[in-house]
Design a protein that fits this description.
The protein is an alpha+beta fold. Helices cover 47% and strands 15% of the residues. A four-stranded antiparallel sheet has the order 7-11-5-12, sandwiched between helices. The protein has a three-stranded antiparallel sheet with strand order 1-2-3. Helix 4 packs across helix 9, helix 5 runs antiparallel to helix 6 and helix 10 runs parallel beside helix 13. The protein starts with 5 loop residues before the first helix and ends with a helix.
């Protein structure tokens, strides 16, 4: 009796119980793009459209346990970030730019509670297709750090009509300068935080007391309810991430601090928020914490300015070379065939091996065929410079014979 192949049987069983929910028109496009480019670069496509349903289980699951940021996307985002800093550097007289680098201590998830078919999500930039943290979230965590540190978490003290002590009033003015109030915007502008590289990995949490939450708290929590596994993606990356903010020096601060002092204060709060509070969701469980935080604005901006100057010089050099080629082409077009041959020989480099071979081959043959005396003189001069002018009474080698032929053309034999 012929035995069935267990791997084929398992594959058939998997196809029976697993269904992939995906719009047909999009999957067709995906396959066409995959053939042409190897893979889809935008992360949100895989995160939002690729999941599976086991018909024997009451929940959906991710199709991919790991999703890496595409290399081409990494390159594009890094170029964008460099250009962003260059634009800020161009206004260095009107702004103070601060750049910090930090590494994710373990893992990060942002946007976990936003709308998604699996009830869990992660924030992906709609244009660049990489994980990112909106500037509003970064500003929010720094503001939260300020409230926790100086007002013991009591945000009501920051209301315009709230009663405050003299010390608290000074802190309020500092708060208004940095974050702004209903009467006016703050001086500090936070920028989006991008993660150009990294991996999204599937994590899991178990929801307890489902009947309690489904009833809106009407039913009592019961331990008999089985836990419901919920999958979500977390970001892991070993590469340092840029945190950027800047201060516009377009109006005087209301507090007694200078622009430079305000920039330094915000940097201290940012470092405290990143290391002690964390960004995103599940920070109480250790998610979203950062380590190896350091200020790198001087180093970054200097390097970018140097690279910008190098690129400028390269563009100037290429333009000069282009104009030189055009002028040379015009000069050659105005010459006769004899003049063009002489000019070509005069442009040869005595130390260039390819030029030496060219002089002994095609150019030598053309000089002999056309009996061009001026070209013969130019060729002799070049061979003397390149140590190829070898005179023998009884020439035997090829180059010696060629020298003799040039001498005969010049009536020097």
């Amino acid at each position: 009796m012929r035995r069935k192949n267990p791997s084929k049987q398992k594959k058939k069983q998997d196809q029976r119980i697993l269904k992939y929910y995906h719009p047909k028109d999009l999957i067709d496009i995906y396959h066409e793009v995959g053939k042409a480019r190897g893979d889809m670069e935008h992360l949100s496509y895989k995160v939002n459209y690729f999941f599976k349903k086991d018909l024997n289980k009451p929940y959906f699951d991710f199709r991919y346990d790991k999703v890496e940021v595409h290399q081409q996307t990494t390159k594009t985002v890094k170029t964008m970030l460099d250009n962003r800093l260059l634009k800020l550097a161009q206004f260095s007289e009107q702004t103070i730019v601060k750049i910090f680098e930090a590494e994710i201590a373990s893992q990060l998830v942002h946007g976990l509670g936003t709308a998604h078919v699996l009830d869990t999500a992660i924030t992906i930039h709609p244009v660049y297709g990489v994980p990112y943290i909106p500037a509003s979230s970064l500003k929010g965590i720094v503001r939260h750090y300020f409230i926790q540190t100086f007002f013991k978490g009591d945000g009501t003290k920051l209301a315009e009509t709230a009663e405050r002590s003299a010390k608290e009033e000074k802190l309020y003015k500092l708060y208004a300068d940095i974050f702004g109030t209903q009467e006016g915007r703050g001086l500090v502008n936070f920028l989006d935080v991008y993660f150009p590289s990294g991996t999204l990995e599937a994590d899991i949490m178990a929801v307890q007391f489902r009947s309690y939450y489904n009833s809106g708290g009407k039913d009592a929590p019961r331990e008999v309810d089985p836990p419901l596994p919920v999958n979500f993606y977390v970001l892991k990356s070993d590469e340092p991430v840029e945190f950027v903010y800047y201060i516009m020096k377009n109006r005087k601060p209301n507090s007694n601090f200078t622009f430079e002092e305000l920039a330094k204060i915000v940097g201290d709060w940012l470092q405290g928020a990143l290391s002690h509070m964390g960004l995103g969701s599940k920070t109480s469980r250790g998610y979203g914490r950062f380590t190896n935080i350091k200020e790198v604005d001087d180093e970054k901006l200097d390097n970018l300015k140097r690279r910008q100057e190098q690129a400028k010089q390269e563009r100037i050099h290429k333009e000069l070379e282009r104009k030189k080629r055009e002028e040379e082409a015009k000069r050659l077009a105005s010459m006769t065939e004899e003049e063009r041959l002489v000019y070509t020989i005069e442009q040869l480099d005595p130390k260039n091996v390819q030029d030496q071979e060219k002089s002994k081959g095609a150019l030598f043959n053309e000089v002999i065929e056309t009996n061009n005396i001026n070209a013969a003189r130019a060729l002799k001069k070049y061979w003397i410079k390149s140590n190829l002018w070898i005179e023998k009474k009884k020439p035997k080698k090829k180059q010696e014979i060629k020298v003799t032929q040039i001498k005969e053309l010049l009536n020097e034999a």
